[in-house]
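Quick question, first post here. What does this chain look like in 3D?
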Amino acid sequence: MISIIDYGIGNLRSVEKALWSLGIEAKITSDVKEIKASKGIILPGVGAFPAAMANLRERGLDFFLKEEVKSGKPLIGICLGMQLLFDSSDEVRYTEGLGLIDGHVKKFDIKEKVPHMGWNKLKFNVPSETLKGITEGSYVYFVHSFYAQTDNANVNAYAEYEIEVPAIVSKENVIGFQFHPEKSGEVGLNILNNLKGLIR
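> Answer (accepted):
Ran it through. Tokens below.
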């Protein structure tokens, strides 16, 4: 079973529905015992970085998630959930993140329209199990105004949006998707389905 963390931040049901459609048992929960008993954790999220981190801290989930990662459990962040995996963000004000992947989240400073919203192509970088069976150039769906700056070695795929935007990142058992796989059609479902090989 995969736990989808309920911490007062949206897009939980769509992720749960997508996983069940793939035959992956998933449950929305904030119960520490249930999360501890699960084989993997998904940290979804839409909204602002400071509010999301405050919600995690209020529930004691920030420290708990770090401990679960240390134990070897896979943690997957989606959209804002991916950004929370990094050291810090400038959104609204400087806020520390979970610090599970080295890097900083900052607002786009580009000529293109912000937010980066809509379909964009994946440009592969460091190989990853999450991209098994996925064709380079496949389109996935993005909605975000901030992006992660991290070491190239942590980036499995980029999207081009005037600059190279990390779309999939990973470090050991921590994975992040900047796009919404649950809203990315067949490609997104195939990426989620690849999690089966990572969550044992």
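The CA atoms of residues 67 and 73 lie 9 Å apart.
The domain at 2-197 is CATH 3.40.50.880 (Rossmann fold).
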